[in-house]
Structure formats: C-alpha cells, structure tokens
C-alpha cells in the first residue's frame, strides 16, 4: 500500500517538475526593442514595422457565432472582421484612447446628419470591389443592412437597425418580404450614396454605421444563413478555405486597392485561424511562440495568470488593459426597505470595495475599483465618487449607520442577494457583500440561479424579484461599443425593463434619466453628447440603485514575433488590423 | 535398493530425493528422503493420499516445479543423467521427448482454445523438425492408435467436444507423440467413469508393451495399479512406507497404512458387506512432521510398541525378499494382524 | 453454423436499432422535457440560439423556426421523419434539403449533422485506433511481465505507474506533455495538429503521436492491471502445466497458452473502451484540440445545438453497440466453446 502511494507521489512529482521546467524553459523573450515591458502596448505601438509578409496564426478557444458580417455579435469578431469586410465607418486602428475615434472606411467621410439627426447620408469611396472584381455599390450596403434585420435567419446579430430605421410595418427582410418598399428606411439615390432614415433622431449614428452589418453584401451572391461559409470580401484578405467551426485561412485579396483604404496596412500575407482550441493550450502556445493571437481577447486562463504575473520575462510581454465592462450589483428599489433611498445609500457606504475587487480576482485579472457606472475608457466618463469608501477602500461605517438611521432601520435589515450559480466570482462577490454589509446589521441571504435563465426568469424578472425579495442582484455589463449609448442604454433606461423578464436592468427606474437619455441620443454634437452621458451616470448614482464594483481588466499575452502591436481601447484587446508578422 | 527383477539398469532412478518448499509459515517438507527406480518396460505404482508427496515427486522428475519455489536435493537419474541441478533448458528438452506426463483431469489439462490435433502437433513439433502436415498426419495416427474413432475428422475438434474418456485418450496420444521412454501418469483415471477407467488402464498397458517405456502411475487408489503395476510404492507424509512387488503388496501387505488403503479400496469382484473404511484422521502437517512414526496418530496399533512410535522414526528396511517397510511393529505382530484382523474384512 | 451466425448478427443489429431509438428519445427528452419541468418555455429554449440583447420578437421567431411551439412528440416525430425521408430547412433565400438519413440540421451552423460527423470521424478513428494499438502493446506486455515476476521491483513499479496512469486526468497529462515534449523539446507536434492518413501517413503519425501516448498511458494502466490479474490466474491453470510438460520454451508457454487464455476479459473491456472512444475521445480531443467527434460533442453542448448533440449521441451509441457486437463475434473466434454453445 505504502509503496504504491509512494510511486504515485513520485510520478505526480515528476509531472509537476516537468511542468515547472516547461514554464522555466520558455523564457527567451523579445529582447531588442528596449521599449517592451508590462503594459507597454497600452498606449503606444510596439515593434513598429512596415514589413510585409508572414502568416499570423490565430486560435479561438470556442467558435465564432458567425463569420457573416450581418450576424456576428462579438467584439473580437468585429475587430477581426475588418480584415475581410469594410463597413461604412470604423474605429481608428490606433493605440489607446485614439482608437475610440470613428473614421470613415467604405464611406468617404463620416455620416452627414440632416433633419435634426433623423436622416444620415454616407457617400461611398469609388473603386472598391469585391474579391470577384464586382464593384461595390450603395445598393449592396442597403441590402446588407436590410437582410441583417431578418432575425429569423440571423438571430445572432445586434438588433439596432430594426430598432432605429423607419422600416415599414411587417417588414421581415428581403427573403420573406422581397417586394416590400423600404425607401422609408434606406434609400440609395445613386451607386455611391446611401441614406438612412430613422424613426427618431440619433446623434451617434456613426457608431451604428461602424457595425459590420453595414459591410456590403451583393444580393446575387447572398446565400442567407449559409453566407457565412463564404463571405465575399471587400477587405485586403479573403477566405481561402473555410471549415465551419474547425479552421479557416485568409489570403490576400488581389481586388483590394490600397489607394481606396487609408486605414489598413495589410502587412501579413495571410492568417491561419483554428477554432475549438484548448484554452490552456492557447496560453502555452502564445508563450512558446507557436501562436500569435488568442482571438477572443478576454485574457489568459486562471492557470496562466499567476505564471505570467510571477515571471518577469513573461510579464514584460503582457498587457493589462481596462475594458468597457463594469461588474456591479443592482440595488432594487422595488424591494422594501430599499424603496427608501437612505437604505440604498447605506449599502453603497457599507460596501467593502477592496473585498469586491478581490472577489473578481484582484487588480490584474479583476480590475480597478469602480465608483461610477461608465468605465474610464468611455468618452465622457467623469471620475467622481458619491459614496467614498474610506482611505482603505473598506467602506465608511459611520456614513452607513447615519444612512440607516435616516432610513428608519438603525439596526439594519434583511434582504436577499442573487447571483449566477455557474460563476464563482459572482458567488464570491455575494459572500463579500454579505460580510461587509453585516458590519452595519444588514443581513444578506445568498440565492443562486442558473445563468441561462438568470434574467429571463429570475433576477431580471421584476415580479420574481419582488416576490422573492431580491434586494440585490449581482450583475455585469459590457458595451457593444465605447460610447455612452452603447454602455448605458441597456442598463439605465427604465423602458427596457420588461415585466415578463429578460432585461439586465431591473433597478434603474428614473423617468428623469429616460428623458436625459433621449436628449443625449438625439444630440448630434459629439462633445455635448459625451458630457450628457457623464451627467446621466451621476444622476443614476445619486439614486443609489447601482453599486459599482470593478472596471474589468484583462491580462493579454503578446504573441511572439508580432509587429505593430497595440491595444485598441475600442475593442479592449490588441488591434487585429494593424498587426504584422516579422 | 533394487527392483524385484534386478538385472537391467533402471531407466529412472531417484535417490534420497528431498523436495522442500519454503513458505512464510515454515518449510513444507513435501518429499523427504525418497528413493525408488523404474526400468524400461516396467511399471511402478506410487500410491498415497493427497498430500503424501506423490505428485510433488512426479513434478520434480519432470522439472515442472516453478523456479525458485522448490528446494530440491538428492538425485534424479534419467538414464544415468542427473536432472537435479541440470540446466532448466536441458531438462525442458527432455520433457515431452524422453519423459512425458499424463494429467489427472484432461478437460482442464488441455487448452480449451486449441484443437486437440493442434495440441498434439505442437507437442510433436517441439522436439521434431517436421512440417505441420507431417505432424498432423502423425497426430491422426496417434489418435487412431489410442482408439479415437474417425480420427481424421476428430483431429480438428476442440477438447470440449470430446467425451471424458476420449479426452484422456487424446492426452495419452499427446504424451506419446515423441515416443517417451518414461511415462508418468498422475491419477490418469480419477476424473473418469468406472467403465472408462478400465479402458484407459488397458490402453496404458498395451502402449507400454508396445513402446517398452518405463511407466510410473500415481494414484490414491490401489485398485488402479492392481493389474498394471509391477512394483508398488506406498507413500505417506512425503516418505515411502512400503515398497514391494504388486503381488506382494496385495497378498502380503506389511504396513498398517497399506492395510488402510486396501480397506478403503472399492472391489468389483465381490459384493461389499460393509461400507468402505476410510483411514481415520488426516495426514500430518508437512511443516511440523511429528517425531517418531509420522503415521502414529492414525495408527490403530501404535500402542503395541510402547513409546517407540512417538519417539523414534521407523527405519525403511527390507523385511525380506525386497519387501521394504517403515514400521516399528514386529514381524509376528504384522502377520497376526494381517491374517486375523485385516484380510478377513477385505 | 454460418446460418446461425447470420441470424445472430441480424438479431443483434435489430436490437441495436431499437437501442439507438431509445437513446435518441432520451437525449431528446433531456433537452426538451427536463428544461420544461424546470419551468422553461419555448422562448427560454430559443433564447439560447439568439445573440445577446435579442428582442422578444427575435426570440419568438427563433422558437417558431426551430419548432419549439410544437408538442414534444411532434418535434421528435419531425426528427424521426428526417431520418427516413430527409428534411428541408429554410436558410433565408432558399431551402436546404437534408437528405435521408437526416440525423438533424444544426441550429447554429446551418449544416446537416451527418456530413459533419462523417467529416470528423476519421480524426477520432485515428486517435482511438493508434492509441489502442499502443495501450494494448504496452498494457499487455507490462501486465504479463508483472504477472510473471509477481512481487518483483518491476511488478511494483509498473503497477505504481499504472495507478498514476489511471488517476491522472488526461487534461492534466495532455497539457503537461504538450508543454514539455512539443513546446519545450520540440519533439512532437503542437496541439491541434492533424494530417489525414490519406495525405501523408508519416505526418499523420507524427501529429497524433503525443495524443496517442497520452491516451494510451491512461488506458494501458487498466490493461496492465487486467492482464496481470488474468495472467496470474491463467498461469496457474492445468493446461499451462501441460504445455510445460510438452517441453515448450517458456515464452511460447506464456504467449501462446497463458496470454491467449487471459485475453478474454481484456477483449470485453476493450470492446467497451473502443466503442466509447469512437463516440468521441472527449477529454483527449479537447486537451489536444483535435477536431474529432468528442470535440464536436462538447462544442454542440456548449452551444445547446441539439441536432448536433442528437447526432453525436446516436453515433456514439452506434459505435458502442457495434463494438460490443464485434466483441461478441470475436469471442467465438477466441474461444471455441462459445461457437458451439
């Protein structure tokens, strides 16, 4: 018995030793350009180069929702899609905050609003062709947008256009309602001009025009749900071989003309993309140099985290960007005694923010302590802190007790906190709140719900929330794009709350905020608009219906041998358009 | 010690054989100082209860004890060549060729997955460089010789398709495939019906006459060797207790243990009036063999010797005409008991 | 006798078909009945097939398109019908026909499932067969040596390693060995490597070498233990003594007589193992990023792509049934007593 156990121990020990030597061995590292280092690619371009050639190897731990520009809804996919698709407008491929700037791509310049922001006109550049040599026309852009509104065929894509465009009643897309007149929504006065007609004014329409859904699709080549098998490229690269959910590769598109495209350098000769790759293996291969990009851009696996942070040579080749995501907790005013603002404030004050941050993995993999709703990289975000948690970040007990007294509950009260059962970090958050609020007598009972139905049936279902006294709901939100609308509209607008459930907003029901949102949405002046988003953020915080936790961060490994490496704030990951292979 | 018929050099001669098995509980002295011999054309019957050392003896002769488990000393001379201490591979080359063995239960002794023919072919081809076809022909001839009907088709049958008697015939065919000069049959008929037993014994006798081999038959049943053996050795607790010609053993047995064996022997030639009398008690532990006569605890006559039976081991000695026994009883006592108490009851 | 063998096979195949239907029903029920019992509605089911922030209308349309409003039996009936007559699927501008036997049509990729399965089968087949050869060789030889030298240092060591092999999960050994042999030493191919055997047999073997060894390491342990136990028993059989009495050399006694007798229980386990593996060596394929059936199954489950899950489950069940049938037939080859019984 003992000898057996001993042998097992020896074998396990050997395996661990192997693992350690494997870790230690793969140092080497990028020497040379003395500018590399931890977070070096956050605000500048590393290894700048104009050298063409090479192939960039990419892995995805999962699969794309769709490669069809009309149907994809992942940030990484939008980032990557710019290699083979050109939308009207795009985020500027530049390091740091500059990436949040919108620049024209297919269009000659940004959209021209008229009718107070209800009509938006885009002029297309000339000389842009599909990979088969057919010229791109404004009709293709209009068709692409219209087809993307057929949510029966393309259920995965974002639904902004059908929400904002003035489409005729009963329109179901070009397949099912081919003869319906859509000129109330989109018109193409000539082959180079496309005009969008909105129901309401929308000042930030350029953000919608940067959606891949505006990348042109030629009607003659459209195969509906099967178009993702061979998307016709307008970018510098086209699909060579595409095995859905397995792998594909991109090669140069000889019909792409650099003269029509000020944004793309098209350095590598091609891309090889592999899907369903073991996530831990991806980290190993990135460190080893066998792979250039973990395309999901969400950061390393927990197993690699301490390894990267603990090894200076690995850490020097990593970046730790903040992303446009907030981990927060909803404070539901529909649940007594949280209908009293002072009781809500007591929670804001009593929260131990440091412990909240620890629940999400600490400052590197978790993120920075949040005091506002909008993360710092959203233009217009204003740094303020209405409920200071004290110098140590552990909460202000005196203020919390004062608030409780004001609320008429000087000894505290009891309520429940909901979290997603599958997410250990949310459970840790709930436990952390349970402990920190207990310090002022607020007793929390933990309630776990399955994440698949978390919003539809439980924490996002207002009658359920009320009936089950879910005073607190652990929550999180990431923007579709980095602006106040993309970030705030789904979580602070009371009109998205559905009594049947399904919205992640259950707590923000402030009519004044709804009005402020409408005003900001209609504002076409970007600077004014951005200031308005900041005001909304503050107004919501005054009501103490959202408890901000952390601004999320991720830990990215720079692939070996890449040139022009920088983190795009717009996507919260490396910019895939600019990269080259040395 | 020489055999009753003398003259010739014995083909197998065993001298002072000791087979000891070291175990965690102590040394098991399975065979202790055993000597015997067999000539070509002669048959020796070794008789004893299970655990008396008779099978261990035969396996020692064949060199079939697992390497390292048995501690063998003494001499085993096969045609003058000592097998004890001989290179295991040299012994292997003798096995099946010059000495062969027939086992007790032919069903378990034959490999269930191979046809009877192929098992005979294998035995033949180990020692003879012939083609498979030649060996197969030989196997069919052998099967015919041992009395398997229709051997040409039965040669491809599997052991489970044979009856018990046929299987034993096939085993004999296998053993005889290389014309061995020594044939050891270990309980060759125990697993068989009474009528089949007689046929198999007849077959062994016929074959022996034909091949002129030396035969050792090992059995717990004196009846088996009654008609077959020239000489009989009775073993008890790893030692010989009586040795003589078969005729002598049956007509004038001298050892109380032999009497017991005779008493428990089923007889076909007369109707039984009493139930078989098994020998009371069980054989002694071979680890701690008792002082004195090993049979003492089961012997009905030990009181006649005073303390002698418990203190002194009886010498294995010639009591006249090549009749050996190991017993403290005096000649008169033995004659008296045999004549008055044993023979009338048989 | 051949006639009875044929009827036997036919009977077994028929039973297999029945079994496959039961498996399909259970899989179907797991995906539809159990969520329903948990309070799920057609919309909550459909919400798994739409993007985030989908409107209620999108969810409703999706539920409708996928037929979630039909009673479960009707839905199952549709699936069943597809197997016999094929099925048509609307993909926007036109309709895709999934010819019989249509094992389903993916909700996500808009592809019929069967061609996908057949496309991925060679990977799993290559992985399982190569590993099986290795683990049989390693397991049986180590097990045999251990049995013959019972209690020796070799025996204890190999049984200790065998214990480790059984205990260490493949996603651990797989990743460790990749990190060490592929990335550190560069001896073996990196994760995700695969070349079809039809293209280049050398590349095929090179790419799969590490997955084979890793998978075989885990299985050989079990086979070594089984072989050891079987050999310990068999080598005490009377027919082994007979074989020795014939004067056979020890190797022949061990291999031809001992091993042959000890193989039967191994055959049973082997049938089960290989059947399970052909249905998808889930952990190995995942650790080595091999695009086989197991990977396909994981991907399907992660995406709630029921038609794929159904397809791969049926495929796995089919292989288990098939492997057991083959094992039963092999029994008759190995053990003549079975043939006439």
TrEMBL record, chain B:
A cellular component annotation (GO) from this entry: plasma membrane
Domain annotation ABC transporter: ranges: 14-262
GO biological process: peptide transport
SUPFAM superfamilies reported for this sequence: P-loop containing nucleoside triphosphate hydrolases
GO MF terms, alphabetically ordered: ATP binding; ATP hydrolysis activity
Pfam families, per the entry: ABC_tran (PF00005), oligo_HPY (PF08352)
SMART domains: AAA
Membrane topology: Peripheral membrane protein
Record keywords, A-Z: ATP-binding, Cell membrane, Membrane, Nucleotide-binding, Transport
Main localization (coarse): membrane
Subcellular location: Cell membrane
NCBIfam families xrefs: oligo_HPY
Family (UniProt): Belongs to the ABC transporter superfamily.
Protein's name in the database: Oligopeptide transport system permease protein OppB
Lineage: Bacteria, Bacillati, Actinomycetota, Actinomycetes, Pseudonocardiales
